[in-house]
Amino acid sequence: MSAAARTDNAPAAASDALDKLIALVATDMEAVNATIVERMASDVPMIPALAGHLIQSGGKRLRPILTLAAAGLCNYAGRDHVRLATAVEFIHTATLLHDDVVDNSALRRGRKTAHMIWGNPASVLVGDFLYSRSFQLMVETGSVAILGVLANASAIIAEGEVMQLAAAKNLETTEDTYLKVIESKTAALFAAAAEVGAMAAGADAAKVKALADYGRAIGVAFQLVDDALDYAASADTIGKNAGDDFREGKITLPVILAFARGASDERAFWTRVIADDKQRPEDFDAAVDLIKLRDAIEDTLARAQSYALAAKDALQPFEDGPYKRALSALADFCVERAY
Amino acid sequence: MSAAARTDNAPAAASDALDKLIALVATDMEAVNATIVERMASDVPMIPALAGHLIQSGGKRLRPILTLAAAGLCNYAGRDHVRLATAVEFIHTATLLHDDVVDNSALRRGRKTAHMIWGNPASVLVGDFLYSRSFQLMVETGSVAILGVLANASAIIAEGEVMQLAAAKNLETTEDTYLKVIESKTAALFAAAAEVGAMAAGADAAKVKALADYGRAIGVAFQLVDDALDYAASADTIGKNAGDDFREGKITLPVILAFARGASDERAFWTRVIADDKQRPEDFDAAVDLIKLRDAIEDTLARAQSYALAAKDALQPFEDGPYKRALSALADFCVERAY
Fold first, then answer.
1. Which pLDDT tens digit goes with each residue over A128-186?
2. Is A235 a domain residue?
3. Predicted confidence band at A239 (pLDDT cuts at 50, 70, 90)?
4. Among chain A residues, CA nearest to B43
5. Containing domain of residue B65, as a range?
6. B1 belongs to a structural domain
7. Hey, are the CB atoms on B129 and A43 less than 8 Å from each other?
8. Which element (helix H / strand E) includes B149?
């Protein structure tokens, strides 16, 4: 663990910070959960069954929390933020359903993925359904501007996913391309989630932009840490199985750094296990060793740390208060959860 | 061919009618085609490559034609109908991309399907991209009401597709359930396509509803004829291979009627080839014979005919003129193309 990748807060304090943010939005979050259940309903029983499997599997719901907290930070007193937080969670759930089909993942957060239980066709179609539902919720807010932000984010997410697919198994992928992929597939929705919370509250343009910047930076930090944890964490810490990315041959920053910095025998190893997709059971441990040897985890986390700092800086236009403090602490949490 | 399923127009006249409609919207359609090319562009090369494969494969573009013609019927002089027609075509293309993955289809309109060339992951993700693009186009019109109509249609389409999936290979599917499926998966987008054309033109509520009703009825007729042609047509007529539905074990009205009316040996045949998915090469010809024996094609077309008449009746609020005449003739064309 490098000093550069550390923050001033201890891990316990960071986790505490997330709890504080969750407590601040707890009442709104209950309304979001009720709206989720209400809006995934359908006369076609397979839809709530499949959607519920994923939605109830216990993610942290960071994205809808961002929408609610952004609205709270901007002193919003209406109800549209609940609709928008639900819409954001539905977009996220739709992308997860499609991702699992794309990656052919067997497990998510330790549970069988929906497509393993109901099949690929159902996962594709229920994803489409949730995606449509999210736009219906946005329409109810009556704001074309908000619809524009989330439609743009959705297009960018899809572009990022295709970009990732095109870069699959290509060890020559640059850090720059990798950052574009995670800015698109992950950070665009974090940014939009925070931005629309501010827009619903009628915040001025500077504050709307500040929250979009905050969300984007948090999103990049979050994904960098996720990608680092895949080579470092136990299933308990990350909520998915370490080694998933490796077994799927995903090109993430730890691999990019280890490959770029590796000697010829290391590059031959990465070529065999990633590019040629010829893995043996003992390869994951060897991969973790090579990644450590090349400082690829600590440098990935150092980059995450700089995005977390940028996220905190983005909050500058806002006055001090419980929401600002909790969002600032959330930035620390995104990185600290790695330790 | 039953007398009931015939209209007063000869086939040549009906095809002529489609040409007249196409001629009426030709200038607008050129603008739509240019917008399609412009908006499927992306820095990620796989996106225009895959989207273009499907979009340029030469469908009749009935849905965007409906949007343009509805706007023309309502004397619209603006440009939003071009954006909306493009949005409608993108939604349709996205559903086709996802359908091909769901059905595992090898061919569409006689060409290899995108997922056979680029793989399922790319088809899923580019479908998502086009779907997002369609909402971006709607946002540009600035109308939340229009966004609501197309978001609702999209949710209904997805529900219809899941409903169809749940009914797959189930020979006990009723005609009522089948109609619900095609009203959702096909007619909802035809209805929305016509409706938003009228809305863009600022038509009054009665005319907006009339065009939605027209589109819905045309959509049901169109799908009924499509399902009939799968057991009756050459690849030239329908633009896809006859027997596709049969080989995929799809439950369509010709099968529902033939099974319901069949003697026990016929039911045993349908059970083996559809429910048990055990087909031999000679089974398609046998299926066509059984469907003829039970008058299932002509009765399917008779139902299509009644929807086509309803579509023409729906145009009652409009004054006579070239658009009304062409839309009325389009209703005939939807059925006449079967003969």
1. 999 999 999 999 999 999 999 999 999 999 999 999 998 989 999 999 999 999 999 99
2. yes
3. very low
4. A159
5. 11-336
6. no
7. no
8. helix B144-166
Q: What would the two tokens of residue B168 be? A: 């797959």
Total tally of structural domains belonging to chain B? 1
Lookup: tokens for A38: 């209400």
Q: Is the pTM of this model over 0.90?
A: yes
Confidence tier at A15 by pLDDT (50, 70, 90): low
- Interface confidence, given as ipTM, is 0.91
Give me the CATH number covering residue A90: 1.10.600.10
Q: Is A203 left (phi over 0), alpha (psi -120 to 50) or beta?
A: beta
Sign of CA dihedral A320, A323, A326, A330: negative
- In single-letter form, the type of residue at position A216 comes to R
- Per-residue tokens: B122: 């790319």
Query: How far is residue B327 from each of residues A26, B42, B301, measured CA to CA in Å?
Result: 54, 35, 20
Chain A residue with Cα closest to B94: A128
pLDDT tens per residue across span B274-304: 999 999 989 999 999 999 999 999 999 999 9
Rounded distance, CA B145 to CA B151, Å?
A: 10
> Who wins on pLDDT, A89 or A336?
A89
- Cβ separation of B124 and A148 shorter than 8 Å? no
Q: Do A128 and B166 touch (CB under 8 A)?
A: no
| Cα–Cα dist B236/A19, whole Å | 64
Residue B309 to chain A, least CA–CA distance (Å): 30
List C-alpha distances in Å: A204 to A144, A195, A306, A314: 17, 11, 27, 15
